[in-house]
Amino acid sequence: MAAMAWGIALAVSCEAPRAEPASVSLRPCPVVLVGVDGLEWSVLAPLLSAGRLPVMASLTENGTFGYLESMEPTHSPLIWTSIATGKRPDKHGIYGFTYDIVGDGRRETHPYTSGHRRTMAFWNILSAYGDRVDLFGWWNTYPAEPITGVLVSQTNTTGTEDDPTSILKGAMVHGVEGQVHPPEMQQRVMTTLAEVEASMDEIATAIFGDRVHPASPLAGLLWEQSRWAVRADNTYLRAAQDVLRAGEPLGVLGIYFGGPDVVGHRFWRYAHPEAYRYPPSQEQVENFGQVIDDYYVWVDRAIGELLELAPKDVGVMIVSDHGMEPIHVGHNFHPDDAPVDRNSGGHEGAPPGVLIVSGGCFRAQPPGGPEIRDLDLSHLPTLGSVLDITPTLLSLKGIPLAADMDGVPLGGLLEQAVDGRMVPTHDTPEWLEARTARMREGAHRGERLEQLRSLGYIE
To answer: How far is it, in rounded angstroms, from Cα 338 to Cα 334?
Structure first.
């Protein structure tokens, strides 16, 4: 029944306005693009070697993998918008989590919305060329834009200003319009959200197991402030699975998982107590020392579940915006610390992220490349930068590049040669005019800002 409801809505969604240049014949290269915030090779490699990530192990064995250069500052909305556009912030217009409006002696802080992005993202470009795009949970996608497929935006929060532990980094919000395209599908997505909310205890236990000791005040606080990430990721996963089950042709499906970044911030000290002057107690390490690894295992399983529903000839791109590293190693952590001082993992130094491509129209790794067993990270190649993802995706599809992009296609990853055609820009007057209507205030602004403060991203 659910698949039927989605199928009806999907047929409507394909009526989104598009312009398909007659000179371009799209390559039949379906792609699943998985964005994983904060995915870190030093965590990934041991889990691959130990056989705990069978899906990503198979992808690396049959594809190409390496480091992906990040950019500074390592603010998620800034980098994920650069990934989606191939452009630096001075062109795409998203400079961080928030912007200020100053006037009449007052300063108001507001979160960025999709309308503040000044240039088309890959989902706009692919839609304009007639390819189907489905997108789930990407940064700065609220209000949802019309595309050729389904767009489930990352919105704000379900929390309240009186309860900071329920403030979310970006999820779905009950009772707020404009979160889903096409609009008639929003109720179905909200039903999915309610189902995830109702089973959160079971979901968390299935991923992380049961704690063997009572949580300390600090660890308990960190845990409660991380559950929303699990909730958001599971909501987007289930929504994407519903779309794939509906059986529509797959062009590009993009999905974002933010949980590895969140648990990396919170629990790095528990996973690596030896790196800190004041490590957690042994009991708390037994409780939470495996949280990061367990979530990587869940992400691997989630990717596998998506690929089971995708066509057999699908190509896969796994991308992270940056890695993670220990911070505050000499700090004596306390629950009364400011939010930024409770974090023991961070990425201020812009550690490189992860890029894995495999299958479909991607080229297999040449002989003599790195192997996942006993992987030496010092020999891992740097494949490109976060600016190169969208140009690579367009080249894979046979769409001309734009001269105003800062990134370049990573032609060595593709089976077919990069087409040399170039257009000045993909930004159309119609799209630029329509974006101003999406610059409205995000939902629950105060709650969103409090959530960002709880992660230490804003003062």
So the answer is: 9
Q: Closest Cα partner for 400 from 130, 127, 125? A: 125
Interhelix angle for 186-198 vs 2-13, to 10°? 140
Residue ranges of domains in the chain: 2-454
Band (pLDDT 50/70/90 cuts) for residue 299 is very high
Q: Between the CA of residue 1 and those of 8, 242, 245, what are the distances in Å?
A: 11, 11, 11
Among 329, 330, 326, 374, CA closest to 351: 326
Q: Which pairs from 293-297 meet CB under 8 Å and 24+ separation?
A: 293/43, 293/47, 293/52, 294/207, 294/208, 294/209, 295/207, 295/208, 295/230, 295/259, 295/260, 295/263, 296/39, 296/43, 296/44, 296/47, 296/52, 296/53, 296/260, 297/47, 297/52, 297/53, 297/207
* β-sheet bridge partners, residue 152: 136, 180
How much is the average pLDDT of 10-25? 50
For residues 222 and 342, is the Cβ–Cβ distance under 8 A? yes
Q: Round to whole Å and give the CA distance between 165 and 220.
A: 11
Q: Backbone dihedral region of 140: left (phi > 0), alpha (psi from -120 to 50 degrees) or beta? A: left
What pLDDT is recorded for position 104? 77
Assign domain 2-454 to its CATH architecture: 3-Layer(aba) Sandwich (3.40)
Q: Within 13 Å, how many C-alpha atoms sit on residue 331's CB side?
A: 16
- Strands 63-69 vs 382-385: parallel, antiparallel or unpaired: parallel
CA distance 416 to 334: 54
159-178 residue pLDDT tens: 333 333 333 456 677 778 88
What contacts 373, CB < 8 A, 6 or more positions away? 49
Predicted model pTM: 0.89
Task: Count how many Cα atoms sit within 13 Å of the Cα of residue 61 in the half-sphere of its side chain.
Answer: 10
Record the tokens describing residue 253, joined without a space: 């499906």
Helix axes 259-271, 227-245, angle to 10 degrees: 140
- What distance in Å separates the CA atoms of residue 391 and residue 11, rounded to the nearest whole number? 28
Cα–Cα dist 67/86, whole Å: 17
